Amino acid sequence: MLGRLRQIGRGRAVLAALLMGIAGALFALALSWRPAIAPITPPSPGSFTPEQVARGAVLAKIGDCAVCHTRDNGRPLAGGRPLATPFGTLYSDNLTPDPETGIGTWSAAAFRRAMKDGVSRTGEHLYPALPYEHFTHVRDADLDALYAFLMMRRPVHEAAPANRLIFPLGFRPLLAGWKLLFLHHGETPTDSSRSAEWNRGAYLVEGLGHCGGCHTPRNLAGGEIRSQAYAGGIAEGWRAPPLNAANPAARKWTQEALVTYLRTGISPDHSAAAGPMGPVVDSLSQVPESEVRAIAAYIVSKMGGSPSGPVAPLPDHAEAAASRFPEGAVLFAGACAGCHGQGAPMMGQGRPLLSLATALRDTEPNSAAQAILQGIEPPVAGRGPKMPGFADALTDRQIAAVLGYARARYTDRPDWKKLPAAVAKARKEGTQP
């Protein structure tokens, strides 16, 4: 009899646990549910003023919309670009006003919800590859201008491929939990002790510019670590350097130098734009200079303001580096010195000295390795330094030798550790979609 009672008790406990699990799952689904917003007929050209559309065009450049929403050799804003993440590959959506594959049936309210809450018109949660944790800080009037610009583009009928994510991350309701942890609403605060230009820069950088999306480290769940804002991150296998006091530049950035860099892709006293930063520069080269100056004012203040005092001499420890990295010295002389060596003709064409290169001075070798592997393309209309890639010409060990030599010769920073493994990882990341 006692055994029978124990069996009944265990059965009731199992049933209670099962019911609690079902109740929890239903609660989670209810928490994640978002209603669909009714479709509309695509707006006519007369729905928006020319001024609103023009303003939206500028905002689209500041937000780099076409960079992520245009695949290689694809139509602008038609989506389909693969975005590699630690959780699999996402494909960007079609932002043209095509009624079937784009946002042609989206109202302005549906567009604002997507940008601020990460929810599509149909109620699906959107993946944070769309950086709505930044876009949520953008004012409605600016989102409406961006919407007007997108709705006046030529429709392109092109559906994005299906995402390829590790199980169970393809289950979109899980994103509701992610947002509870990492999506923080509200406008960017205004600092009354700062200039109007600085506050404008804060609004652009923290909002549409979403600079922290690349330049802030992320946790295992893919959320930005807010306590380490602008402490450096990873973007498409490249290192996005810190934009705070830990910025590794050999010479402190000034507002003027950063404006030049953001509009041309090169600062003679700092670096040349490479990797994912190239398309950003291309976009910013097409917006009013006042907007770029505001962005630069805000970022320079985060890096500790303008320099003061005499400029320190630049290191060049050629003999010591060659004795420590003899193979790297030989490879550098054959593959690099023609452009980067002392007295090389290319150095008179605006190419920054390697002793000024941020990538060589960074705590991680990602960007320096990617620059050698993939090369560098001029970001603005083919103007600026161009460097060929050596992925097919040099092995991982040889590239590691060159990096070790260049770091030892042109900086006073400690050696990078496990360089061959780091180069192999960079090569793999550089070939991902």
UniProtKB/TrEMBL annotation:
Swiss-Prot/TrEMBL cofactor(s): heme c
Intracellular or extracellular location(s): Cell membrane
Name of the protein described by the UniProt record: Mono/diheme cytochrome c family protein
Lineage: Bacteria, Pseudomonadati, Pseudomonadota, Alphaproteobacteria, Sphingomonadales
Transmembrane domains' residue ranges: 12-33
A Pfam family reported for this protein in Swiss-Prot or TrEMBL: Cytochrome_CBB3
Cofactor remark: Binds 3 heme c groups covalently per subunit.
InterPro entries assigned: Cyt_c-like_dom, Cyt_c-like_dom_sf, Cytochrome_c-type_DH, Membr-bd_ADH_cyt_c
Cleaved signal peptide residues: none
An MF annotation (GO) of this entry: iron ion binding
